[in-house]
């Protein structure tokens, strides 16, 4: 059974500092003008945002040596990096999370205005919204499996750590509804709304969520790699 939840801006708990980090300001704050634009953008987005997530559980079997995962009769070439992190999983959660169509329409309106600063700010904010929505999904998943004594791994998405983005089509085919949370796939397997996240999480008695092992992955543009170490 798929669990779905809609979230307002206030439920995500996003701070201006997170937006700054998404923009690349890891060690220093931007100037006053960018700070003011960020605050104005957050005020604009707050009342219109309709973020949402969905997830469901599915039995599967991972082959860490071959770097594959069997789910619902479909074989995924997830690569050894992800497969090894999923070892010991007794089931898998398939998920999506999105900033929603209202936010996408807001971005399109900014594109039409041509204000590059606000366009860039909104793009950074959208990435934060999608990831924070996925965080809320992860929290709901943890609560739903706790009674079984299960834990969960990190979340992994097509397009990262050697998992080919084209397998997004196969992943979405397993969902109970063809467009979970209103997300559609293009022919090139990109999601719309653009500010969306999809993937899977391993769950079981002996799995754990760990720090992302960026040293094992050669994807240099991963948002987690850009995240500062504290």
Descriptive account of the structure:
The strands form three sheets. A five-stranded antiparallel beta sheet has the order 1-2-6-10-7, with helices on one face. The chain starts with a strand and ends with a helix. It has 230 residues and is of the alpha+beta class. The protein has one domain (14-226): NADH Oxidase, CATH 3.40.109. The model has no long low-confidence stretch (mean pLDDT 91). It has helices at 16-23, 32-45, 79-85, 101-113, 116-145, 168-173, 223-226; strands at 3-7, 51-58, 60-63, 68-71, 74-76, 91-98, 151-156, 184-185, 191-192, 196-204. It has seven helices and ten strands.
Q: Which terms would index this structure?
A:
five-stranded antiparallel β-sheet; NADH Oxidase; alpha+beta; elongated; 10 strands; single chain; 230 residues; three-stranded antiparallel β-sheet
Across the major sheet, the strand order is 1-2-6-10-7
Major beta sheet summary: 5 strands, antiparallel
Q: Which structural class fits the helix and strand makeup?
A: alpha+beta
Individual helix count: 7
Taking Cα atoms only, what radius of gyration do you get, to the nearest Å? 18 Å
| Total E-strand runs | 10
Short description:
The protein has 230 residues and is an alpha+beta fold. Helix content is 36%, strand content 22%.
Topology:
Blueprint: E1 3-7, H1 16-23, H2 32-45, E2 51-58, E3 60-63, E4 68-71, E5 74-76, H3 79-85, E6 91-98, H4 101-113, H5 116-145, E7 151-156, H6 168-173, E8 184-185, E9 191-192, E10 196-204, H7 223-226
Antiparallel strand pairs: 1-2, 2-6, 3-4, 4-5, 6-10, 7-10, 8-9
Helix pairs in contact: 1-5, 2-5, 4-5
């Amino acid at each position: 059974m798929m669990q779905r939840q809609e979230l307002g801006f206030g439920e995500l708990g996003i701070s201006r500092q997170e937006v700054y980090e998404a923009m690349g300001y890891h060690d220093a704050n931007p100037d006053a003008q960018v700070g003011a634009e960020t605050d104005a953008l957050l005020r604009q987005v707050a009342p219109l945002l309709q973020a949402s997530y969905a997830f469901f559980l599915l039995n599967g079997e991972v082959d860490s040596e071959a770097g594959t995962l069997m789910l619902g009769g479909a074989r995924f070439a997830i690569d050894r990096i992800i497969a090894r992190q999923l070892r010991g999983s007794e089931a898998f959660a398939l998920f999506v999370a999105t900033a929603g169509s209202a936010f996408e329409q807001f971005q399109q309106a900014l594109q039409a205005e041509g204000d590059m600063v606000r366009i860039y700010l909104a793009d950074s904010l959208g990435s934060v919204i999608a990831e924070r929505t996925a965080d809320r999904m992860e929290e709901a998943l943890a609560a739903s499996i706790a009674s079984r004594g299960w834990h969960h791994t990190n979340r992994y998405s097509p397009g990262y750590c050697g998992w080919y983005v084209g397998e997004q089509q196969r992943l979405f085919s397993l969902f109970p509804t063809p467009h979970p949370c209103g997300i559609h796939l293009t022919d090139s397997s990109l999601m719309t709304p653009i500010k969306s996240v999809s993937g899977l999480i391993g769950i079981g008695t002996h799995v754990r969520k760990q720090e992302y092992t960026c040293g094992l992955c050669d994807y240099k543009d991963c948002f987690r790699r850009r995240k500062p170490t504290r």
